[in-house]
Specification:
membrane
Length: 322
């Protein structure tokens, strides 16, 4: 196949090596796209997953999917064409801008999650008041806006306007041609987010090891149990007033109630629909609630995971009883 030849001086071994690299890149592309598509389908098809913390994870999945489509995928074509880009410098500049923006979003979201967990550990009461889907979506959009603006200038405008890039046969970022710009790009894309994330998780580790934090988590759990107990008492008292001694809905035979006692039938139905049915549905969902979290260190973030799970349960409860 002529289009597999890398260049005029390449041998058969080099051609086979290019094909092996392209096959590996293709497999990686399929795995990246498939795994992130599964995450997106699970999130949009299952309402239990639509909690505050998972909106950050979904934003990472969208960014990683774009990285697979615009960075790893086009690399397969370039390898098969002998490390040459056959579609022109404009399409190359656009792909570089999109892929780097998506990669930057994915890395920044790791930093955003670590900041959110740090705030939940150090300021739990304030964090509860600001936890909402709308706030998570606003932060996600802000990250995308920042990354798109930066990399549309660095990757897109610079790549299209540079005369030397028009003569290039390879699709590669222009900042890699200079040491200063390469250093700045690596610092922005990797060193700064990873360093701040490491510092934040170290602070979280110190906090969760203290007895004060454990007392805060325990107080939050006790407060939520009291709210649930208060709801149970209200339902039980209303049910006993309606049916007297037979206050448990599972032991009441509605069909054997007197046909003249239509008030009891209607009252029992209203109480069950209003109190027992939503409560049972909430209990069934909370038992199997999956929480997707980013784990930096299992030993250092165990208590932080407990707090995140507790806060997600609070969100679910407020949705059902508000």
């Amino acid at each position: 196949m002529k289009w597999l030849q890398p260049n005029q001086t390449s041998s058969t071994d080099v051609t086979k090596w290019n094909f092996d690299d392209a096959s590996l890149a293709f497999v990686i592309t399929v795995l990246i796209c498939l795994s992130n598509v599964i995450i997106l389908l699970a999130f949009f098809s299952e309402k239990r997953l639509r909690v505050y913390s998972n909106y950050y994870v979904i934003n990472m999945a969208i960014a990683d999917l774009l990285v697979g489509l615009t960075a790893v995928g086009p690399a397969v074509i370039q390898i098969l064409y002998g490390y040459r880009w056959p579609f022109g410098y404009i399409s190359c500049a656009i792909l570089i801008a999109i892929s780097h923006a998506a990669l930057h979003v994915s890395i920044i979201m790791v930093l955003v999650i670590s900041v959110d967990r740090w705030y939940a550990v150090y300021h739990p009461l304030k964090h509860i008041s600001m936890r909402s889907r709308r706030s998570a979506i606003r932060r996600n959009l802000s990250v995308w806006l920042f990354s798109v603006i930066v990399w549309s200038l660095v990757g897109g405008v610079w790549g299209i306007s540079d005369p030397a890039n028009r003569l290039s046969t390879r699709c590669s970022p222009l900042y890699t041609r200079h040491f200063a710009t390469s250093f700045a790009a690596i610092a922005v894309l990797y060193w700064f987010p990873v360093s701040v994330t490491g510092i934040l998780y170290f602070l979280i580790y110190r906090r969760v090891r203290s007895s004060k934090f454990r007392k805060i988590v325990k107080d939050i759990e006790i407060g939520e149990r009291r709210k649930c107990s208060h709801v149970n008492l209200q339902v039980s008292s209303a049910d006993k007033d309606l049916k007297g001694k037979e206050g448990i809905p599972g032991l009441v035979d509605v069909d054997n109630l007197s046909s003249n006692d239509t008030r009891s039938r209607e009252g029992f139905s209203k109480v069950y629909q209003r109190h027992y049915r939503p409560k049972a549905k909430f209990r069934q969902r909370s038992q199997s609630l999956p929480v997707l979290v980013f784990t930096f260190s299992q030993s250092s973030t165990a208590s932080s995971d407990t707090l995140t799970t507790t806060l997600d349960d609070i969100d679910m409860q407020h949705e059902k009883f508000d």
